[in-house]
């Protein structure tokens, strides 16, 4: 049985990367021996199968997301602090493959032994166009030397192949089976994600505030679910604009399906996005999505005005206009989009995705 090591900083955040890793680890564990190696406590926000082993290097990484220089310093210190432990762990495990989710983790694997590159699978999660200069340098050097780059968006896959990497398009696994369709009568707009500047929840609030002033909300409420460095500024904006009656910010929960079941529209405002896991999750419940057509992922899921709405980046007026149409729909347009959104989710085949992974692990690509 092949042995797979998944190396990630932490499984404790309630983020999209951690969700993808948990889904993939659980699916891998049906055929392979899977170990998840973290730097902090051996706890996972998302449930892992009992046959998925989780270990720790005990070298937790603390990052100040508001201070770029301090963040870089913390990364470098953590890199050297954990290198010896990581090298020893990999050498003692005799792993067939090592899976990582970021250029920095790929660098750590490289420094633990150049020979590990032949078994290194780098899974992309963010948009190729969102990385800073340091990460771009790492990618340019490490990606072509690694075994394979797993990319969940078609645009980025083509770009990595053009740059000389062995990139393969493998979308992420769907989280929820399609067993429930919302009736879309709830008048709740949902946004789920880390509260960061890249997700642009503040822009979403500004659009919402304008709709409220123009009396276009028609009884709708906005529910933002997440945690992050923008939380304080978002709450201040809500208070200063008296939006408490039509906006709420809630913490992540393991029962995230309860939020989806109560929503009738999913609003996405990311500046850059990889796959957009929450879009597929929303579609699984028959929720139409409105999103900027940002690089690179939303266009792989949303077909404009068929199963959702794609807005030119970053046309705020168009976004506001299209959202107003959806919130004041009287012609079953919203429900038509929702029905097609769920059809998209139904056609999403986890079995086909795992078959692609099996080919990767058999080195048949």
Protein model, in words:
With 365 residues, the chain is an alpha/beta fold. It has 2 domains: 3-173 and 349-361, Rossmann fold (3-Layer(aba) Sandwich), CATH 3.40.50.2000; 188-346, Rossmann fold. Helices cover 39% and strands 15% of the residues. It is built from 12 helices and 13 strands. It has helices at residues 16-28, 68-93, 103-112, 133-142, 154-162, 201-213, 231-240, 257-261, 277-284, 316-327, 333-346, 350-361, and strands spanning 3-7, 33-38, 53-56, 97-100, 120-123, 148-151, 167-169, 188-192, 221-225, 247-250, 265-268, 289-292, 308-311. The strands form 2 sheets. The protein has a 7-stranded parallel sheet with strand order 3-2-1-4-5-6-7, sandwiched between helices. α6 (201-213) links the parallel β8 and β9 (221-225). The longest helix has 26 residues, at 68-93. 40% of the residues are buried.
Summarize the model shown:
The protein is α/β, with parallel strands linked by helices. The protein has helices at 16-28, 68-93, 103-112, 133-142, 154-162, 201-213, 231-240, 257-261, 277-284, 316-327, 333-346, 350-361, and strands spanning 3-7, 33-38, 53-56, 97-100, 120-123, 148-151, 167-169, 188-192, 221-225, 247-250, 265-268, 289-292, 308-311.
């Amino acid at each position: 049985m092949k042995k797979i090591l998944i190396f990630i900083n932490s499984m404790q955040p309630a983020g999209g990367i951690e969700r993808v890793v948990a889904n993939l680890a659980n699916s891998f564990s049906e055929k392979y021996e899977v170990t998840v190696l973290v730097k902090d406590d051996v706890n996972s926000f998302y449930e892992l199968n009992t046959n998925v082993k989780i270990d720790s290097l005990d070298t937790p990484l603390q990052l100040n997301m508001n201070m770029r220089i301090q963040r870089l310093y913390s990364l470098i210190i953590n890199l050297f602090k954990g290198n010896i432990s990581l090298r020893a762990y990999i050498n003692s495990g005799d792993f067939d493959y090592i899976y990582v989710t970021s250029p920095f983790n790929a660098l750590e694997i490289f420094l633990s032994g150049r020979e590990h590159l032949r078994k290194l699978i780098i899974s992309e999660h963010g948009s190729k166009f969102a990385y800073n200069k340091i990460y771009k340098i790492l990618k340019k050097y490490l990606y072509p030397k690694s075994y394979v780059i797993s990319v969940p968006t078609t645009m980025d896959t083509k770009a990595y192949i053009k740059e000389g990497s062995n990139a393969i398009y493998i979308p992420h696994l769907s989280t929820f089976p399609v067993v429930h369709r919302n009736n879309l009568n709830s008048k709740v707009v949902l946004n789920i994600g880390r509260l960061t500047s890249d997700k642009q929840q503040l822009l979403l609030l500004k659009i919402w505030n304008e709709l409220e002033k123009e009396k276009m909300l028609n009884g709708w409420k906005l529910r933002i679910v997440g945690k992050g460095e923008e939380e304080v500024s978002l709450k201040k904006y809500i208070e200063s604009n008296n939006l408490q009656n039509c906006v709420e910010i809630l913490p992540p929960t393991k029962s995230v399906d309860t939020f989806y079941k109560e929503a009738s529209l999913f609003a996405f405002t990311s500046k850059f996005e990889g796959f957009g896991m929450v879009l597929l999750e929303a579609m699984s419940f028959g929720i139409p999505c409105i999103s900027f057509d940002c690089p690179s992922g939303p266009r792989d899921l949303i077909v404009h005005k068929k199963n959702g709405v794609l807005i030119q980046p970053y046309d705020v007026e168009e976004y506001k206009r299209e959202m107003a149409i959806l919130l004041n729909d009287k012609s079953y347009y919203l429900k038509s989009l929702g029905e097609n959104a769920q059809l998209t989710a139904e056609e999403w085949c986890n079995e086909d995705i795992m078959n692609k992974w099996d080919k990767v692990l058999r080195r048949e690509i």
